[in-house]
Specification:
This protein is mainly α and 182 residues long. The chain has one domain (2-181). Helix content is 84%, strand content 0%. It contains six helices and no strands. The chain has helices at 2-32, 38-73, 75-80, 84-114, 132-165, 168-181. Helix 1 packs antiparallel against helix 5 (132-165) and helix 2 (38-73) runs antiparallel to helix 4.
Length: 182
Amino acid sequence: MANLIARSIHDLTAAAWFGGSLMGAVGLNGATGQAKDSTERTRLSALGWKRWAPVQGAALIGHVVAGLAVINENKERIASQDGGTRLTAYKTAVTLTGAALTLYTGILGRKVEQLAGEGAEGATEPGPGSSKELASAQRQLKILQWTIPFFAGTVIVLGAKHGEMQRTHNVLKGLVKRSLHS
C-alpha cells in the first residue's frame, strides 16, 4: 500500500509540474499578452506565476520525496534488472535539471515582477521602453517557459518506461541475464 501511495504521489506531482508549466506558458502568458495596458501584461503574468509557485514547489518536493520512496521500495529490482540503474540515473538527472531550471524561472519571474512598471509587449516579450534587465529576463523566460514542460514531460515518459520494465517478460529477461552473470 505504501508503494502505491508513493507511486501515485510521484505520478500526480509530475503531472502537476507538466500541466501547470504548460498551462502557464500557453494560457497565462498568452492571455496576459492581450492586456491593453503594457504594464498590466507583465504584472498579471508575474502575479499568476507567483500564485502558482507554491503549488509547483510543493509538487516538485513531493515528486522527489515520493521518488525516493519508490526507489527505496524497488532498489533490488532496479539494481538487478537490465537497464534499471541506468534509467533511474537518467530520470534523476532529468528531474534535478528540470527542477533547477524551474527554480531559475522563479528567480527570473521575480525580476520581471519588480520591473513590471516598465511595460512590455507581452509576458515574455520586451517592449520598446524595456530596460536591458527586463528584456534579458523576458528573453530567458521565453525559452524556459517551453523547456520546463519538456523536462517535466520527459520525467513522465521515463516513469512510463520504468513501468514497462516491470512487465513480466521484462522482469524474466532481467532475471535470466542476472543468473547468467552470477
